[in-house]
Structures are given as C-alpha cells and as structure tokens.
Specification:
The structure holds two protein chains of two kinds.
Chain A (H helix, E strand, L loop, with lengths): L2 E5 L3 H13 L3 E5 L2 H10 L4 E4 L8 H10 L7 E6 L4 H9 L4 E4 L4 H10 L5 H6 L2
Parallel strand pairs in A: 1-2, 1-3, 3-4, 4-5
Chain B lengths: L3 H15 L8 H14 L5 H11 L2 H11 L10 H18 L4 E6 L5 H12 L7 E7 L2 H9 L1 E2 L1 H4 L5 H7 E4 L2 E4 L1 H4 L2 E5 L12 E6 L8 H13 L1 E9 L9 E5 L4 E4 L5
Parallel strand pairs in B: 1-2, 1-7, 2-6, 7-8
Antiparallel strand pairs in B: 3-5, 4-5, 8-10, 9-10
Helix pairs in contact in B: 1-4, 2-3, 2-4
Classes of the chains: A alpha/beta, B alpha/beta.
C-alpha cells in the first residue's frame, strides 16, 4: 500500500485529507509541522507528502528544501496544499522542490487529480473520485 | 417544483432547437439551471419565465433557456492520455501531411477548457504551434464569452491543470486566473449550432467533439455526426469522448484516445 504523510497544523484539514487519501487507497500518517514531518521521513520515507505552507516551528517551504537535501529525500512526491494562491509564491514552492500544488479549499477530485499528475494513482482512479 | 408540463416544454424546445436531450423527470436539474436565467431576465418565478417562453415564443428568451440547459464542461486536460496522443502522434502526423496549416476545431467548446488545453500543449511543443490553427465553437453565447475572456476561478484551474502549467500560462487577476494573451490569441471563436449547415465552415483536419454526443437526442446525434464528418478534410481525424459510442463507418485510429478516421466505405 502507498503511504502519504499529511503535514498541516490544522487537525481539521488533516482529518479531511486523511479521509480522501484513505478512500484513494493510501496508508496515512500525520504531522503537525515540518520538524515532526522530518522525523517521520527519517524513520521511513513516504510515497507522498501533502504539505501545508504556513506552520509553526518549520514551515512547508523550509521543510521541502531540507527534505530534498536528505538521502532518499528526492523520492517522495511532495504536494503543497495551502491558502497561498499568488502565482509567484506557487512558482517558489515548485522551484523549492514541490511536485504539485493544491490551493485550499480543495476536494477529493482536485486532490486525486494532483496525485494522478505525480504518478501515484492512475487517471481512472482520479476520475472516479469526481 | 415546476409542473411536469413546464418541464416537458423545456425538453421539447431544447430538442427542437439544439437537439439537446433533456429528461423532463429531472426536475431538480431543470430548476437549478433555469432559475438563475429567470431571475436574470426579471421574472419572479421560474414558472412565469417558462409561461412567457410558451406564450410569446421570443427568440432571445428561448435561447437563454436552451443555452442554460447545455451541460457544462469543467475540466482542463480531460482524459490526459487523449491530449498526449494528439500532441505526440496525431498533430505531428497531420502537420507532416498538410501543405498549409493544420485546421483544428473544438466543436461544443463550452467554457474553453478543451481548446485551451490544446493551445497550452502546442505552445509547449517546439515547431508545432505555428503549424496549427485552432477554432472553437459553442451553441451558448455566454459560454463563448467566458471562454474568450479566458477567466477561470480557483476551483476551475485546479481541475485537470498541473501546477507547472498554471504558473506558466496564467496570470492572477483579483481572485481569478486569466490565461495569458499568448494562449488566448491562438484560438478563434464562433457561435455554432451543430444542427445547422456546417458546410460553410470549410474543412478541418482535426475535429474534437468529446463527451457531447450523449447529450443529443438520437436523431440529432446522427445529424451532428454526419455534419461533422462532412467537414472533415481528406485524411482528417475526428476525436470523440472515451465514453462516446462511435458509428460503424468510423475507423478507429487510436481508440484509447478516441481518435477516428472516416472509413473507406464512407469516404
């Protein structure tokens, strides 16, 4: 089973994301900030990371930069998930090493589509989630 | 809820004007599509609007009603494999064969997501963009206006559009996302009812009519398919939706992408 780490300081968002991801067949772990997420990654690199931008302790941008510098840190597909909708900031996230970007609010179809782009689910699964 | 006879009138008008198949039993669908139109046109109740269509048969109101019943297309790069096949195989082959530009028509383009997806792909493929002319049509003036403006909500740009294409081809305007002028200028638009005589449009090398046919009545579907294939240039390709049933006289070229050619019997 594919694994996804959900990194967000909002418990509500983590819960919503977990439900969608579990429906798509992922095994889900949760972290409340970048430091906690890094500890998870050191223990076992997940297949996917759904990553909030603004978080206490270590934000998403710093996390993805550090992750990409870690051994094996190029493997997880990182999908940013943030209220930030400025295109320059989205570009910044992609340049920092994110593979995809979801603007909050999102739904199952949007998330499934993005997971399809990064090759973690087939396109047919994405359209079924509509 | 509006009366069954009102819903039957809506279905009858949609079928006769645009060949649209509307199920009169789907009261919620009809009401949710038409209530905003009735409000916009200044009617207190939806039933008053329909009564006015029945009594006065005013063209403008009739078309406002028909347009609102056209199923909306809401996704960029719907069925990504289709676009991959078009950019990788179908368009380069047509470009090799064609003497002039390759003429592409997105028939029933809705709010433009399909034709703009193609425009983005062309812009990303060196050498192909200058060889291809993109045309798009829809029966709905309102859809065409929206498509031409290239303005999409945050929700719309997240459907089917990868983030790298969003930052490459769009600009932010307030809470909306606008396609760059470069992409918008690649497409020419026209209001076309696919039931009308299509012969004045010239010939096209590639026609996309995806996920549209199932919305027509049986008779209209046949008429539209015939009309489209008559506007297909020799050796041209017709692209149907992956769920659309094709006719026996269409030869599958790349069936996983819904790409067909005119069968030898028909040609």
């Amino acid at each position: 089973m594919k694994t996804c780490l959900v990194v967000d300081d909002s418990r509500v968002i983590r819960k919503v994301a977990r439900r969608i991801l579990e429906d798509l067949g992922f095994d889900v772990a949760e972290a409340g900030d970048g430091v906690e997420a890094m500890a998870w990654c050191h223990a076992a690199m997940p297949d996917a990371i759904l990553l909030d931008w603004r978080m206490p302790v270590m934000d998403g941008l710093e996390f993805v930069r550090r992750l990409r510098a870690e051994p094996g840190g190029d493997r997880p597909r990182v999908i940013f998930c943030s209220v930030e909708t400025d295109l320059a900031r989205i570009r910044e996230a992609l340049e920092a090493g994110a593979d995809e970007y979801v603007m909050k609010p999102f739904d199952g179809e949007i998330l499934a589509g993005k997971l399809g782009f990064v090759g973690l689910i087939g396109p047919s699964v994405g359209s079924l989630a509509a | 809820m509006i009366a069954l006879e009102d819903r039957e009138l809506v279905a009858a008008v949609c079928a006769s004007r645009a060949g649209l198949r509307v199920d009169p039993d789907k009261a919620y669908l009809i009401e949710s599509r038409l209530a905003p139109v009735a409000r916009r046109e200044g009617f207190g109740a939806l039933s008053d609007f329909i009564e006015c269509v029945r009594q006065r048969a005013e063209e403008r109101l009739i078309w406002a009603m028909v347009e609102a019943m056209v199923p909306p297309e809401t996704r960029f790069f719907r069925d990504p494999a289709v676009f991959e096949a078009l950019a990788r195989d179908v368009l380069p082959e047509l470009a090799r064969r064609a003497e002039g530009p390759v003429r592409v028509w997105s028939a029933a383009c809705g709010a433009g997501q399909e034709v703009y997806s193609l425009a983005m792909l062309l812009a990303e493929t060196p050498g192909l963009a200058d060889r291809v002319e993109l045309f798009a049509s829809d029966i709905s003036e309102r859809s065409l206006e929206k498509a031409q403006a290239g303005v999409y909500s945050q929700f719309e740009v997240q459907r089917g559009l990868p983030a790298h294409r969003l930052v490459r081809h769009f600009e932010r305007e307030g809470e909306f996302f606008v396609l760059s002028p470069r992409i918008r200028q690649m497409v020419r638009w026209r209001r076309i009812n696919l039931l009308d005589d299509l012969s004045r449009l010239g010939r096209f090398d590639l026609i996309l009519c995806r996920n549209v046919l199932s919305g027509f009545t049986g008779e209209a579907r046949e008429q539209v398919l015939e009309g489209l294939t008559r506007t297909l240039a020799p050796g041209g390709r017709l692209v149907l939706g992956l769920g659309d049933a094709a006719e026996a006289w269409l030869d599958p070229v790349a069936s996983e992408a819904g790409v067909f050619a005119l069968g030898t019997a028909a040609a």
